[in-house]
Batch of 4 targets.
Target 1
Amino acid sequence: MNHSQIFKWIRVLALMFGIGAGRSPSATLALPMGCGLDFDGADDVVTCGNSSSFTLTTSWSISLWARMDTTPDNSFFVWKVNTYGMGYGLTGFGVGGLSARFAFSVYDQGTSWHTVSSQASAVAGQWYHLVGTFDGAALSIYVNGQLSASTGYSGLVFVNSNQFTIGTNVNHPLDGALDEIGIWDTSLTLPEIQALYNNGFGQEIEPGLHTRAIYHLNEGVGQTTADASGNNNTGTFGNSGGIDIYDPIWSCASTPTATATRTATPALTSTPTATPTRTATLTPGPTSTPAPIPALDSSSVLFLALAAGGVLLLMTKRRR
Ligand SMILES: [Ca+2]
Ligand SMILES: [Ca+2]
């Protein structure tokens, strides 16, 4: 057993005894919304089944928030491939010898992968909003609400019978965190993507006509995460519903509640109107409001006047 495995077993035992089951909030782990999942970079994974929700062919999108704590060549965020490595995924992906960029990849019906990768490299420790879209003619990747790159592709996407996974315990595991994962059976438009990105701090996805699966990852405790789309693609942590070394860990920016309060999200069934411009960084900072200075009431004024008079009287007497 190597050091990494020993550490993982210590973590598992701690969780079994209820130690550290809910990670305390910290600035570096602050997530865009409520809770998210922290992946250890070794083998943590969530499996979400193989329903038709994840069979995506000619027009679809994947959106999520991702943070890479280290940036190896490959880190899989979400992924659906068979044992021969054929399928699709949204990843941090090394291209041309460069450190990880963000990539959206599909395997065709023949023998090849087709990948579009973002222009800029991923910076460790930063949260990014990522969307990969396929509209039947091109693969595109959007970073923080802006189109980063597109490449032409008009073929089909390989359909396999493997599970849709968040993270991976097979190859190229993620050392970092994920939140607010959405699968759509439409190619999201720029205004729709910008509405998802919202004001730089993110916004929860509302179920709509085109949502195949939605993972808010807000439970904060337990071994499963619900699919808010209504399609019941529940995600299970690690190898089983029990605690095991392949479980990611809940990471919460604030105390999770069963019913999170949401702000309204433009539904994809209507035409979005707002296209917010944002330059804000993704790290929310606390704001403080100075306490108001209490106003003096009439009795306070009278008291102060009498006190001042007393002092003057004393000083005058001393001079005499
Ligand atoms: Ca969340
Ligand atoms: Ca488990």
Note: Confidence is low (pLDDT under 50) at residues 18-30, 255-267, 269-306, 308-320.
Target 2
Amino acid sequence: MEPTTELFKVSGTSREVRQPRSAPKNIAVKCPECKEIIFEREYKKNLKVCPKCHYHFRLRARERIELLTDPGSFVELARDLVSSDPLRFASESQVYAEKVVQERQKAGMNDAVIIGHATIEGEPLALGVMDFQFIGGSMGSVVGEKLTRAIELAIEQHIPLLIVSASGGARMQEGLYSLMQMAKTSAALAKLSELGLPYFSLLTNPTTGGVTASFSMLGDVILAEPGGLICFAGPRVIEQFMHEKLPEGAASAEFLVEHGMVDLITPRATLRQTLAQLLHFHRKATSQCIVRERILTIHGEQVLNNRSFIAA
Ligand SMILES: [Zn+2]
């Protein structure tokens, strides 16, 4: 069959497939790091962080949005986009189109990212949050398109951008179309950067592959949650290829901070506060620029047409 030229489509219904109600509720979870048993109530109260060793469990995209944004401020965009399976991909064990439908049911979302706009402590921003639960947070054409729309929204509205990454990399079942998303998102971010609008990138466990090789590492400020695996290729793959042992924790967020690839490790409990602070700084810088622009007009000097705060 001929491959289609459409990479994504709008799903027939505007609603996402809901997760079955009968899903059993865990009353306790075991920390994979220190083996502590954490009861549901404490687990939730502690924002899914182990109280003993501070291991950060994965958050779903909607949980992350709820944690970071002002209550009721998030407006979701492009919720209906679904993959159109551009390669008509089928392996011996699976037909991709069928897998996507199953995953949509299992994860309760249409693809591996949620985008929209919201406020954090009253500061507006465009937002893209990835969800590892949907095919390992893999980046196919829908993820690339939605993130690009989030970037374009930031450009249009002249607001900062936040992308929260959680990904195993490019989506193999969409082959080259997946890899193209690296260039597409990076090109959109370059436009954002030209306008002097800030991009905050938050890396969560894990952020790997094509996502690390594109938008995740292009942030003006790159934050990471403690203990996260952040790399292009995993340490085991590198060791097999190089025939050399890597230093302890070579792909950890902490290692990347020490080596200048990440700016700051931010524990989940202070994440919202840190982001709010960054957004406040940005607004102050921008308003100072506008003030300067007005003064120049009042004094009859050449009027600045460009509102870019870089000029300040
Ligand atoms: Zn623990």
Note: The pocket of zinc ion is lined by residues 31, 33-34, 36, 50, 52-53, 55 (CB under 6 Å).
Target 3
Amino acid sequence: MPKLRKSLKILAAAGFLLWLADGFLLMRSESPRSAPAPDPGLSPRYSGAIHIHSTYSDGGGTVADIVRAGQNAGPDFLVLTDHDTMQPLLDGHQGYHDGLLLLVGEEVNTSAGHLLALGVGRDVDQDGPLGLPALVEEISESGGVSIAAHPTGRRPWTDWTVEDMDGLELLNGNSEWRDDGVLELLRALVFLPFMPDGVFNSLVDRPDEAIRLWMHRARRQPVTVIGSLDAHERIPLWGDRHLSFPTYERLFGLIRTYVITGTELTGEVGVDEEILVNAIHRGSCYVVLEGYEPAYGFSFELTMGPETKSMGSSVAFQDGGRLHVTAPSSGPVRIRLYRNGVPLIETEGHELFVEVPGRGVYHTEVYQLRSTLLRGERQRIWIISNAIRVE
Ligand SMILES: [Zn+2]
Ligand SMILES: [Zn+2]
């Protein structure tokens, strides 16, 4: 009997060591890469950390804390979206803070879930249980953008019939870990103090369900997708105690939305807000898992006849049109092109050219290829483009 117990103990210890070794190699394979310098001829683009909560609602940090975190993490702009308040705008927080642009939007509590209202410039609200279409119309008429927040999260978006709604969040920094298993979360906790970059990256997966919802809606109308943070830097504990985790700075470096503006920002807040919001509105943007590698060099374009169009465009079909994806990276990547949400063609390389086979909603995803000794090669989502519609 003691012999059997001893063997079991040795077996358990060996299993635990293997689990640790696998976790260590996995987290190491998830570490950040530095990006090659982007082609200077590319259209101007700006990376933003969108969907941030401050102490104006249920966030743990003040606007000053958020700006400081933004300056350390390095996005070009931040979008504050406190729950049901535009007070930060009235208090004069929107603007450039030592070169970092802070825009103030709002996360509106509606009958169908949480709705981000960007670029509206004033407080908006749903009026009564049937007031959702009117709210969305009001946002649109004020030149703003309406985006369904965490559509597949704990508080999902439930009404996709609203005509004018502009888009949805594909990633949400606050929901990402919720779909992971207990063992995965336990492993994350064990390695968090030693390999935080790898741990955070490892928790972000391709948002299959949100992509499915996006494509379902995109068959009928243009839909913008963004990558969001839902950054709170606050996990409530008991009483009024809380844990300041995950930090704003961490999340600002994890997921970003890159906005292709087609024109340089001017340094004037009102003008620049309009440039960015209009570009998001037309879907001229892409989602990046920034924790792997910045993606200022990415492009997804369609050349049809004499015209070249980028994400967010709708183009009439002609024979001979070509789709072109470029995804410069310092490591191996896989580019996959989708038509109506279905994989069409893929390549292991930094560039993909393909003739447009017909009408459809085209988008592309770029995966980073990361391998470990025990698991071999894994493809990890890095970039998700907005769509180009061929009609
Ligand atoms: Zn929310
Ligand atoms: Zn939120």
Note: The chain is about 25% helix and 30% strand.
Target 4
Amino acid sequence: MNSAIRWPSEVPDDQVPLDVRSVTKRFRRRGRGQSQPGPGGRRRAYHTAVNSVSFRMRPQEIYGVIGANGSGKSTLIRVLSTLIIPDEGDVLIFGRDALHSPASVRPLLNRVSADPSFFRAMSALENLLFYGRAYGIAGPLVRQRSLDLLTRLGLEHEARQPMTELSRGQQQKVAVARAFLTAPRLMLLDEPTTGLDPRSKRTVQSFISDVRRDGVAILLTTHDMEEADQLCDRLAFLAGGRIVAEGTSEELRAHVAGSTTRKADDVDMEDVFMAFTGRSIEEDEEEPESREELQDDTA
Ligand SMILES: Nc1ncnc2c1ncn2[C@@H]1O[C@H](COP(=O)(O)OP(=O)(O)O)[C@@H](O)[C@H]1O
Ligand SMILES: [Mg+2]
């Protein structure tokens, strides 16, 4: 079934897919009194969305970045996919310098954003054909790959329906299929299952496990602790833009159990998050702040 997908051969299977070194990304707050704090005001001119983040993925790993809304997940993904430039740090993708030569890494990676956009009047298949051809994949091959991917994601019957007739979950699956068309070796998935019904969630999760077996390294973000626990080989907790813990779910649970009288089996991921951040994932959501007040320096 995977015959339609052929990976670019130029990266060895044992190469580190992603090496993130002290990456920091700040956004400037618009219209604020620059760096001096105002009278009684604690607000600074900059907001640090991603703060000295370092980690290294292993070949064919599913690596989960867990964090509340506003913890910096999407900003991190946008930096790693070369869409925005960090203020500090380095990113190596299969040993290539993503910040200084983004064109060299783009063929190796792809991203699914948390809020994908499509040509809404076109069908799922047409969206994939358009995208695939734009990426230079030959017509017959792109059709074969598109149908294969849509089938693997359980959308064989919806492939020819306009996007407007698909549910949000189905649209999210089309976004996943589209991103895999280019046969990336590193896939960055920003909350791929948020908002999906339980069945679609399971389909997407098992698709992710399958493609890993095909040799793709996957970084995904989530705030679903169960998903993180079951799907990911290793996890990193992101809180306020910083990684506060990293390890396998067993390691993280054992660490928390070790500091209490509980057994590791009785500790769940929510407890682990609480132990490392001092808050539950819901409490960790940052106070809402109008997007209009913030601006992207790299824009
Ligand atoms: N383009 C932007 N301009 C200004 N601030 C931003 C921008 N994108 C994100 N932020 C801010 O950076 C922080 C992290 O956001 P984000 O990476 O979207 O978090 P998450 O994906 O974990 O919800 C938030 O405070 C958010 O408001
Ligand atoms: Mg996000």
Note: Residues 25 and 86 are 5 Å apart (CA to CA).
